[in-house]
Amino acid sequence: MEPDKRSEQGKRLEEVISRLNQLYSEGVKDTIITLPGIFGKQRNETFITSWLAYLLNPDVNGIGVTALNALLKCYEKQSGRETEGLLITDAEQIVVETEYTFAESGRRIDLLITTESYVIGIENKIDAGEHGDQTYDYWQGFKTLCGFDRGSKSEKLIKTKKAIAIYLTPEANTCKPTCHNFVKVTYTDWLHQLQEIPPDPKRDQRKDFIFTEFLLYVEEELMSKSKTGFPELRNEVQLYLDNRSVLKSVSDSCNDFNRRLGEWLVDQITKYDSFFISDLPLTSYWQIRKNPHWKKLDFHFELYWGNTDKKLFELSEEDTVWLYAHLEPKEQWTKDNFSGYKNKNELVGRTINVNFSDESKARNSLKRIVDILGEEDFSLAAKKAEDCLQDYEKRNYPV
């Protein structure tokens, strides 16, 4: 790039940084943070399923059977099946279980609710789709539950009941159940029913808070925003649109520096130990070998930092990375030389801190890596790998 053009881009970048600082000092428009958002669990199905179990349990939720009945109304509407007397009453005995395991298949459905008349199964899918005909296996389990009393926690209530199978998803999740007996209900449809539940000043405030927070969560995290109009163009987005070229140039420079740093590390490690060879570091790990034949065994030393958004030069002393001997064995390896290890994939390893942000720190970090790889436990893992490979080749490729 020509000097005057580089200088011009540098000035543009300074202007962008200055404008960003100004935006955040003025206070960026608040983003609504939901209860799951505080814990980073907005899309965590296990977390949300536990919340559902609370909301659908009239013994603890503070709103009785209204949330469950709201869901059943959605089921009735979507299924097109007019079910007489479908609604549940507060007087009924109800048991709510999460991760219920069906005895026949060993499959676990997210929620199982048993009432005096119904077995209600709910499979909660936030982003995922169905795995291996789950709903079909669940339905076979429902048929057993509705016909027999086998005496477990919930099944002791069950003699002859009707099965209701619900496949609960956000609108954006277009996956469908493989079993036609499952009826797909969206969180949006359920939300509309829940919003019709009238406020009650006598309701416990804490329980009311949990309920209203769920409504907010569905609205903010699970509803399709595209149907509510064009999204607001925030100032930061406009800043990006106005400065795409200079920001792309910065990103390209970072990627180029990261690539050249990787090439430097590959070159330097052979100077510490002439036996070391390695591939270029990738987005979250760096594989190092002492023998090119290790590839046949799928064995290597590995520096693993895991964060695909973090480049090599961004690692600092504050980042803990994992340095270990890694084996991805075939069946014959595990039966022989490596059989004494509890975890065949991670034979030996430890956490270390590295910093590749400048040459001095990078050299110190590289020396630390080489020193550790030369220690007895790593050397033993390497020897076992080589012995295993030699033994395998003798058995399979005799001279």
Feature tags:
alpha+beta; 5-stranded mixed β-sheet; 43% helix; 13 helices; 5-stranded antiparallel β-sheet
Placed side by side, the strands forming the largest sheet appear as 1-2-3-4-5
What global shape is seen? extended
Low-confidence stretches: 149-158, 331-346
Percent helix: 40-55%
- How many whole angstroms does the radius of gyration measure? 29 Å
* Element pattern in H and E: HHHHEEEHEEHHHHEEHEEHEHH
- Main sheet record: 5 strands, mixed
SS summary, helix count = 13
Average of the residue pLDDT scores: 79
| Structural class assignment | alpha+beta
What is the CA-CA span between the terminal residues?
A: 58 Å
Number of strands: 10
Your description of this structure?
There is one protein chain. Helix 4 packs across helix 6. By secondary structure, the chain is α+β, with helices and mostly antiparallel strands. It is built from 13 helices and ten strands. The protein starts with a helix and ends with a helix.
